[in-house]
């Protein structure tokens, strides 16, 4: 359906309401060169005009495997795919596309996943090298899905590869699980991926979901695994009275307990 069709917006709204669990907001498509250029220019503008210590990627992924099937993405995928096909396969695909605009993604699902990941990686790689060329001291970090398999297959966020490529200084796994053992496994995967490549990990803890005691426990686990830093998500939760934070002093309690447990004077 053409975006100019009067029914286009209606269909988008209907689909969105029926698939709320697969949506995180409105994304721009990474396969679009204009999108990649726009994001790049934003980063370069910040780098040029502000004395920042670091720059951080958030939502550097797709929401789910339902995306990105825009016309721009489909055309770019066919162009990317063509050199990998035999002449016979190219002819067959061309005929199939006349009847079904999704023929390429239907026939080559795994390659479409590779293509999706490549588009996002392309953004990270270009920006990282541009930042380091202009200001090598600036840290480039990214919030990443802590479940690396989910990140790879469903979000097309190949962050372990980014660390191996050296195009990310710090991975910030969003290990927001309430279960400490799951947290341990996820941070272990992150540090095992980052440290051999000379990169760092700042362990993300979902403080908004757990009592202060559980946050302190997870801080201890992250330290044991060699995490290079801790991120509590989020500050507004820790500073605002609520069910898990009745006095609004969550951050103070966590800070005191974490410091005491890490003090060299403690037996």
Could you walk me through the main structural features you see in this protein, from its secondary elements to its overall organization?
By secondary structure, the protein is α/β, with parallel strands linked by helices. The chain contains twelve helices and five strands. A five-stranded parallel β-sheet has the order 1-2-3-4-5. The longest helix is centred in the middle third of the chain and has 26 residues, at 109-134. The termini are far apart. The mean pLDDT is 94.
| Total strand segments | 5
Q: Stretches where pLDDT falls below 50 for ≥5 residues? A: none
* Major sheet strand order: 1-2-3-4-5
Give the percentage of residues in beta strands.
Answer: 5-15%
- What pattern of helices and strands is seen along the backbone? HHEHHHHEHHEHEHEHH
What structural class should be given to the helix and strand makeup? alpha/beta
Individual helix count: 12
- Please state the CA-atom Rg, rounded to the nearest Å: 22 Å
Structural domains: how many: 2
Q: What percentage of residues falls in helices of 4 or more residues?
A: 40-55%
- Ends: how far apart? 68 Å
Largest sheet: 5 strands, parallel
Instruction: Give average pLDDT, whole number.
Output: 94
Q: Given the C-alpha coordinates, what overall shape results?
A: globular
